[in-house]
Structure to design on (229 residues):
C-alpha cells in the first residue's frame, strides 16, 4: 500500500459546527503533515507530527486541533471555523530520513467549505 | 534560511514540443530538491528528487531535472509534452536543519495545446 487516504473528500460546515478530517497511511512512515492550500497557491504547512508527537505548529489558530492517535492515523479537528478557512486540506507523510530529507507522499485532500 | 523561485508562473507549449520549467533556489546548507505535480482538485505527486547523489535526476513520466550548484538551479524538462502533462508544478527545497519544513515555490501552470 503506497498511498495516503483522506476522508471526507468534500465537507461543508457552518461556523458553529464541529467536524474532523481524517488521514491514513500504511507505509510505515513516521512523519505526517497537515497543509492548507488556497486556490492558485502552494500548500502552506500547518502541523508536523514526528513519531506521533507534535513537532511543528505553524502558529495555526486554535480552532484547528490536530491529533495523531497512532503511527498510521492523523486527524484534524475543526471547530468554529471562519469562511476564510475554506480551502483544500492536504495530508502528507514521509519515510524516515536516511541522511537526507525524504520526499512527501500526499493524499488527495479534503475540499472544505465554511458557510 | 532557504527560498525557492519558480521563474515562470505560466508556461504554454504545444503537444509534442519540449517542456522547460525553471526553478532557482537559495539555501545556507546542502539542499534536497523536489518537483511535484498537482492536477486540478488532486493532491501533489512526486515527479523526482535530488538528494546529493547524481546531479541529473530522472523522474516519472519522462521528466528529468539537473541540479546545477553554480547556478543554484533545478530546472525541470521533458523532451515531448503530452496533453496529460497539463497541471500545476511545484519546486520544493528542504534542508536537514529545518526540522521537517519544506519551502514551496509559487508554482508554474503548464498548459499543453493540441
Amino acid at each position: 500500500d503506497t498511498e495516503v487516504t483522506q476522508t471526507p473528500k468534500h465537507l461543508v460546515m457552518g461556523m458553529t459546527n464541529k467536524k474532523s478530517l481524517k488521514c491514513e497511511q500504511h507505509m510505515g512512515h513516521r512523519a505526517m503533515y497537515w497543509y492548507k492550500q488556497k486556490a492558485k497557491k502552494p500548500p502552506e504547512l500547518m502541523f508536523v507530527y514526528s513519531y506521533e508527537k507534535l513537532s511543528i505548529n505553524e502558529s495555526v489558530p486554535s480552532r484547528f486541533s490536530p491529533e495523531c492517535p497512532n503511527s498510521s492515523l492523523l486527524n484534524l479537528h475543526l471547530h468554529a471555523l471562519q469562511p476564510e478557512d475554506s480551502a483544500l486540506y492536504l495530508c502528507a507523510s514521509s519515510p524516515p530520513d536516511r541522511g537526507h530529507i525524504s520526499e512527501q507522499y500526499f493524499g488527495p485532500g479534503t475540499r472544505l467549505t465554511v458557510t | 534560511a532557504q527560498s525557492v523561485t519558480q521563474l515562470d508562473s505560466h508556461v504554454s507549449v504545444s503537444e509534442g514540443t519540449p517542456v522547460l520549467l525553471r526553478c532557482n533556489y537559495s539555501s545556507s546548507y546542502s539542499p534536497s530538491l523536489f518537483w511535484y505535480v498537482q492536477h486540478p482538485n488532486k493532491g501533489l505527486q512526486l515527479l523526482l528528487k535530488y538528494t546529493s547523489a547524481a546531479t541529473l535526476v530522472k523522474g516519472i513520466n519522462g521528466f528529468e531535472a539537473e541540479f546545477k550548484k553554480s547556478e543554484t538551479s533545478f530546472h525541470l524538462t521533458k523532451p515531448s509534452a503530452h496533453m496529460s502533462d497539463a497541471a500545476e508544478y511545484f519546486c520544493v527545497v528542504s534542508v536537514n536543519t529545518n526540522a521537517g519544513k519544506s519551502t514551496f515555490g509559487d508554482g508554474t501552470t503548464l498548459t499543453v495545446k493540441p
